Inverse folding.
């Protein structure tokens, strides 16, 4: 069965970086892309971007350009999302999901808390 | 403010039918990009409910249906059940293939 398992919760100080992992299983990793979505406490979903696991092509949300990098490691079927220069409003649950358009399987979410 | 506009809340009694609208523009939904719908139960990850405007993934009851017309899309839920109480989000794209989410609609089953 398809599963996306994300890394554990993180607490970071403003200005720091965080790297969240998303390990995929149950399907051919390179046949699908990975999208990243975040949700601030009590707020709606925010699309962050996607990466093709086939060729590494990326498409980032304009507001995160320059601060976010998405990568994949095909040898371990793992996707990564790194966010730099963290601010308090980056506090959110970060989700990875399979697919670039239709996202049919989601990870369990990773809470990233940015606090001094 | 989300580019795709949804009503903040809708409600209905068990057994009733409710609809949730998702209004975009000629730059996204109206440009022909597909609309997907997600259901998010409290404390859980979103679940794909409708893809490609009107298609249901395996396992989603046929009480849920989606449609699209012009610059808008709708999610309809018939035979409302208590377990349908959740947040619902629409998603589409813009010309740069960047994802867009609606602000979300909280469904309350009375």
């Amino acid at each position: 069965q398809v599963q996306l398992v994300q890394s554990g919760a993180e607490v970071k100080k403003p200005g720091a970086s965080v790297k969240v992992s998303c390990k995929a299983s149950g399907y051919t990793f390179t046949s699908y892309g990975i999208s990243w979505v975040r949700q601030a406490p009590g707020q709606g979903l925010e699309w962050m971007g996607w990466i093709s696991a086939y060729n590494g092509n990326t498409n980032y949300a304009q507001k995160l350009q320059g601060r976010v990098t998405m990568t994949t490691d095909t040898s371990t079927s793992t996707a990564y999302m790194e966010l730099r220069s963290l601010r308090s409003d980056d506090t959110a649950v970060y989700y990875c999901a399979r697919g670039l358009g239709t996202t049919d399987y989601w990870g369990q979410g990773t809470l990233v808390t940015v606090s001094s | 403010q989300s580019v795709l506009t949804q009503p903040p809340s809708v409600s209905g009694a068990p057994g009733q039918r409710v609809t949730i609208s998702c209004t975009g523009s000629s730059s996204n939904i109206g440009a022909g990009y597909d609309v997907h719908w997600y259901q998010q139960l409290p404390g859980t990850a979103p679940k794909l409910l409708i893809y490609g405007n009107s298609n249901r993934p395996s396992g989603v009851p046929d009480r849920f249906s989606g449609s699209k017309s012009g610059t808008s899309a709708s999610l309809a839920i018939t035979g409302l059940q208590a377990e349908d109480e959740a947040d619902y989000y629409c998603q589409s794209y813009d010309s740069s293939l960047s994802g867009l989410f609606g602000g979300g609609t909280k469904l309350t089953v009375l």
